[in-house]
């Protein structure tokens, strides 16, 4: 059984979805999907009983190799590291269907917390919890015993408990973020205190490419002071829109016709617990003109 062009169209969205969750990068996910199919095409004549599992195995092992090297690179990363926002348009039928079907494991909060997992823990957790493969299939993909995969999954789950109560309701969270924006504009501290946790943490990712806080900012007072300080310095052509990133409402900030940053949120029990401000230009590839023409980037 061989991989065909029809298989490419069928499984590409699934593989991208898995690759993005594993690596937290759109470009890297696209690369590993391409490499996966290239390798599969080269293995003509190989007996394949389950194409889906076969392709996921190739991609998973490639991601595991990358993660080992990426972890070393991120040790030298300047400031907090945020996953690259995956910009989605809910009205766009061209969005990868596997991503739209599965919200779990897609939020910035979830992807960021996965940085605390070892590569094999990340792979087993995603393959089991998000993509619902059997332990037998996972064991074959990561080349470990089923019993080991069960233990790895349990260990990874314990490390991810912080996001288990994350609100994934787009519409409910959109109301909260809109209220946050309005209260921020009015400097309504009473409403902001209602919406934002006293222990809120802001992770500002500039990657050493642009000016950003090199350490997480913790506490309501410090985070608000930072945000109010930033807004006082923005130029006259500053504008923002509320759009869909990672199936959650996010604030897209434009300055001088370019996408300057994306602000995402971790919301739990109707409270903003974390704020993720991604400004690294390598993670924000579109200009305002391109954004307006294409809608949200895929």
TrEMBL record:
Q: Example GO biological process term?
A: DNA-templated transcription initiation
Please report the stretch or stretches of sequence annotated as the RNA polymerase sigma factor 70 region 4 type domain: 109-160
What is the protein's name according to its record?
RNA polymerase sigma-70 factor
NCBIfam families cross-referenced by the UniProt entry:
PRK09636.1 (NF007214), sigma70-ECF (TIGR02937), SigX4 (TIGR02957)
Q: Which residues form the RNA polymerase sigma-70 region domain?
A: 8-69
Q: How does it assemble?
A: Interacts transiently with the RNA polymerase catalytic core formed by RpoA, RpoB, RpoC and RpoZ (2 alpha, 1 beta, 1 beta' and 1 omega subunit) to form the RNA polymerase holoenzyme that can initiate transcription.
Superkingdom of source: Bacteria
InterPro entries assigned: ECF_Sigma-70_Domain, NTF2-like_dom_sf, RNA_pol_sigma-70_dom, RNA_pol_sigma-70_ECF, RNA_pol_sigma70_r2, RNA_pol_sigma70_r4_t2, RNA_pol_sigma_r2, RNA_pol_sigma_r3/r4-like
GO MF annotations for this entry?
DNA binding; sigma factor activity
Q: Which organism is it from?
A: Oceanobacillus piezotolerans
């Amino acid at each position: 059984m061989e991989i065909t062009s029809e298989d490419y169209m069928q499984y590409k969205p699934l593989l991208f979805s898995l690759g993005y969750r594993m690596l937290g990068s759109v470009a890297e996910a696209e690369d590993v999907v391409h490499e996966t199919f290239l390798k599969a095409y080269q293995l003509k004549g190989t007996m394949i009983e389950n194409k889906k599992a076969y392709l996921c195995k190739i991609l998973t092992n490639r991601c595991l190799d990358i993660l080992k090297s990426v972890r070393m690179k991120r040790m030298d990363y300047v400031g907090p590291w945020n996953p690259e926002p995956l910009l989605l348009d809910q009205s766009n039928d061209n969005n990868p269907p596997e991503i739209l079907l599965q919200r779990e494991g897609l939020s910035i909060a979830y992807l960021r917390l996965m940085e605390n997992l070892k590569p094999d823990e990340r792979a087993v957790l995603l393959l089991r919890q998000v993509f619902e493969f059997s332990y037998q299939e996972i064991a074959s993909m990561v080349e470990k015993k089923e019993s080991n995969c069960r233990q790895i999954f349990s260990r990874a789950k314990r490390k991810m408990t912080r996001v288990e109560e994350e609100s994934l309701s787009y519409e409910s969270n959109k109301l909260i973020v809109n209220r946050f924006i309005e209260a921020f504009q009015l400097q309504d501290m009473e409403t902001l205190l209602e919406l934002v946790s006293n222990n809120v943490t802001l992770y500002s990712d500039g990657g050493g490419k642009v000016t950003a806080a090199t350490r997480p900012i913790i506490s309501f007072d410090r985070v608000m002071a930072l945000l109010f300080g930033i807004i006082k310095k923005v130029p006259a052509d500053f504008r923002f829109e509320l759009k869909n990133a990672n199936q959650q409402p996010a604030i897209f900030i434009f300055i001088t016709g370019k996408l300057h940053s994306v602000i995402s949120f971790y919301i739990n029990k109707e409270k903003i617990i974390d704020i993720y401000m991604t400004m690294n230009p390598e993670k924000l590839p579109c200009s305002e003109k391109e954004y307006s023409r294409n809608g949200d980037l895929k």
